[in-house]
What does this fold into?
Amino acid sequence: MNISYDENNIFAKILRSEIPCNKILENEHTLAFSDINPQAPIHVLVIPKNSYINFYDFTKNASIDEVKFFWKLVNDVIDHLKFEYKGFRLITNSGKDGNQDVPHFHVHVLGGKNLGRMIN
Ligand code: 5GP
It folds into this structure.
């Protein structure tokens, strides 16, 4: 099934500066900002600046540079938050079964306490 990118999703609006965000870091292809409804003491979202629906779409269709810059920014966020030794969790929800709410690819970076087991 082919689904098309929804230009009106909330992260597209953030990227167009139509709504604000608390920016943490960015690079040429990627933006990191605080989640509005944190699920841990620290909860950052990392998104590509171009339009990709989910992890599958991103890894299938993004350029090598976009993929490289994306994971580099995730790494920079981990450095910025000093999570290297304390630990953290990366999550990417995808589609209906993954309960993805915002249909623009994003990785959640969660930490700041022991996060417990992965799935209840
Ligand atoms: P998903 O369920 O799609 O994996 O996660 C979407 C995330 O986006 C949620 O954690 C939610 O709190 C966050 N979110 C939704 N709307 C906004 C917004 O307007 N600003 C920010 N910074 N985060 C948002």
User: Anything to note?
Assistant: Residues 10-111 form a domain with the HIT family, subunit A fold (CATH 3.30.428.10). The mean pLDDT is 96.
